[in-house]
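Methods: example folding runs. The two proteins below were folded one after another, and each record is reproduced exactly as written to the output file, sequence line first and structure-token line second.
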Amino acid sequence: MEKIIIETEDKSKLDLVKSMLEAMHIGFEVVSNDVVVKNKILSDIREGYLEAKDMEAGKVEYKSYSSFSEMEDDL
């Protein structure tokens, strides 16, 4: 499963992205700055710790997008 990190303070944008991912049957997990997920904090994800660790294990391919249109091209 690919990991997609979305940072926004606009809840309507987050809801839109969640709806798009659900419609495309893409698994995702919503986390926040204040939540510890599986003993790992969001700042670790942002710093690349989780992505690098998972890539080494062959679990995910890390991609970074600067716009929704770039993400659409890969879907």
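Second run, written to the same file directly after the first:
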Amino acid sequence: MGDHIFFPSFADDGLDFSEPSGSGPSYFQEKRQHILDPTITALDAEGVASQSQEPDVQTTNQSFSCPYRKRNPWMFNVRDHHICATHPFPTITLLKRHIVSKHQSRDFVFPCNNCGIPFRADLDRQLHQESGLCFGSRTCYPDEYDSGITDDMHRRLRDRGARNGVSDWSTLWMTIFPESDHIPSSEFVPVVEAHETWCHFFQRLREHSRSMSAEAMMQEARVHLQVLINQGQNFLAALGSTIRWIGCLISNVTQRSRMGRPHWLDEALLFSMSNTGD
């Protein structure tokens, strides 16, 4: 079964939020560095003990995304799964602990009546359905793997043996999504709100406008103005042809009606018009 992965990455969608070379990190790069502050981790947010008996195999400055958020961000959104959407995990050990704590299939027993997304509590389902943000027609419907890990997956994640242990992103992904045909990047992508995107867009637009000379802007305006003038001339020409056609049609109808009228009717019409004029 193929994945319905939807990557919330701007580069893949053709949007370039990067700054020109030499101008320093972009707004979103700075935001990502801020979110990856080691003092702000999902471990602290979940209230789990900071000490682990299992050694970490990652020693580089790497952050891991919640794999369920990476696979189906529509379901694991900021409103319904805040930790999954907003917190990176510095090690595989902490990521596995998050999965065991927050993603067990036996806990998600309250599916939404509209879109099918499962929830842990009936209250969470009610809040989701009353939020006005639940849509029945979507491209990413939840499947059996979105509900969380099974007991067998749970045992595999807790296995610390060298042969069957889960110590890297690829193994972790295939353990919880065994029918997956693609393993995405493990990089955590911070949530970008709409107003932040618009502010950044208009900032780049202002910078682009300043870089254009007045002569170049006038030349571009003249090109667009000429297009509008040509369209207006074509419209007036078509309107004139239509008016002439209507005039000919009315004239023909009038002539035919006169030919079919008796002589005394024309005299009566003339007499009526003359009396009206007096």
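Comment on the second run: Confidence is low (pLDDT under 50) at residues 5-59.
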